[in-house]
Design a protein that fits this description.
Helix content of chain A: under 10%
CATH class of the largest domain in chain B: Mainly Alpha
Low-confidence stretches of chain B: none
Mean pLDDT of chain A: 88
Mean pLDDT of chain B: 87
Number of helices of chain B: 8
Oligomer: heterodimer
Number of strands of chain B: 10
Strand order of the largest sheet of chain B: 6-5-4-3-7
Largest interface: A-B, 20 and 22 residues
Strand content of chain A: over 45%
Shape of chain A: elongated
Largest sheet of chain A: 8 strands, mixed
Order of helices and strands of chain A: EEEEEEEEEEEEEEEEEEEE
Amino acid sequence: MKTMIDNSETTFSNYGIYDLGDNLELSLPNTLIKFQRISDDAFSYFRENSEGKIIEKIIPIKSNDVKIELVPIRPLNYPARRTNYVFLKLDKEIHLGENSAASIFVHCPIEIGIFLIHGDNHESFDWVTCNPLNSRFSLYGSPDTGTLCKYAKVSLAADYDDSISYVNGVMHIVIENTLSFAQTISRIIFSMADNTLYYKDSKAIIDGIKITMKKRAAVNIAEVKTTLVDTEWTSSSTWKDEISSDHHVEMDLE
Amino acid sequence: MVIELLQSLSEMQLVGELTALSLLIGGIIMVGGIIIAKIAKILFHKYYAPSLPKDTAQNISKLLYFGILIISFLGFTSSQGIDLSGIMVAGGIFAVVIGFATQSVVSNLISGLFLIVEKPAKHGDTINLPDMGITGTLLDIGTFSSKVRRFDGTVTRIPNDKFFTSNIRSLTLSIVRRADVVVGISYDSDIENAISVMKNEIFQTMPFVLQIPEPEFRIDALGDSSVNIHVFVWYPKDDWGQAQPILLTTLKRALDQAGIEIPFPQRVIWTGKD
């Protein structure tokens, strides 16, 4: 893939809130973002993304009190917003014996959201991804009744500080096997609609999930629940959701 | 003045016991019913329809509109002192005659009702009717006919009985769809290498192609001039334009960059000697 931006010897912008002033330049891996005042009541926006595509917008403003927020967001927008579900393919399988549990950290991909703050308004403005190659779709289930998911290959992380800046955030996953036989876990599918992201400088962490493999009636299922992270890191703004997810998906055990 | 006018109208007999006053009252009921039906339809479309699926909203809207009209008509007939039981008997015979005369109209009406109940496709679905050679977006299932907007922008009206009895292929009912193309490589080329470079190019440059199920490559035929590889990729149902039309371009670019020949048809001519 052709990369148009030279990342060598570049200091990237941290997550956080920036005063717009007259000019603001934000730098991310493979991505350059520029805001420039073009009149008393308008700014221009320029973004060159990791695929060499240029996006330009005009932002009319009502007051001079305009800020920009740059934060990690859920990885659901690239290449297009189609689903709230995420399919994490673990690079190493996890073997869980009967009635046992595992606690792991994984590198979960993220995207970066750009929000406009003026007065009390907090608007989703744009988003970028710094690692588009690890942002694809997959199908869980059959073509007619299955679930479309965002797909990413993920590796295990050591702890919350192990995230790769701008590319992924660390997520804590607890897997509990209450079944009377062992299980091997190679993929995790869940709705990310309720997971909040948190940031500190250029690192990100994500609300975790707890997976309980259990028997319900005659069926073995994996129940997934979101678990909140107890952290002092700053909570990210939520990107405006455009997908309404009114169905519930449970992982089958194969 | 008004009372005198009404009194004179009540005394003005038109046919039998039908007076001008009762006809006026009937007219007011009917006109009032039409106005109420239209207002109810407008209010429904303004306040409730946006929160409902389009086809459901259209069906409820029609039910509301025609329901109020029928109630108004019944009010009109009772205000005129018309005994409907007599009409029912005569209507039965009349209906048989009309039924034969308007067979196709009734057929379309009934088919429309079945289409609304069965819902083989809903408003906005992309459908293909192979029997009629029509592919496009379903705009409306109406009382007598349905409308499909083809990809060239034209709208085709299909009588409901034909729509109901034909094979309907929904292109958007499944969550994902599959695109497939055939590409030929020369007999000198390494098939495994060709598949590898095509797979890599798809992954790199076609973000809408699903990773699971992953792109599939099958040797379709050992053709006259080339080894034909059938390539299948899956994509989200709404992103046909990001898969099928660019798949061949992507594969050709991958093969060109890897120096793998896509051969022209060729013949080996052997000239026999005496």
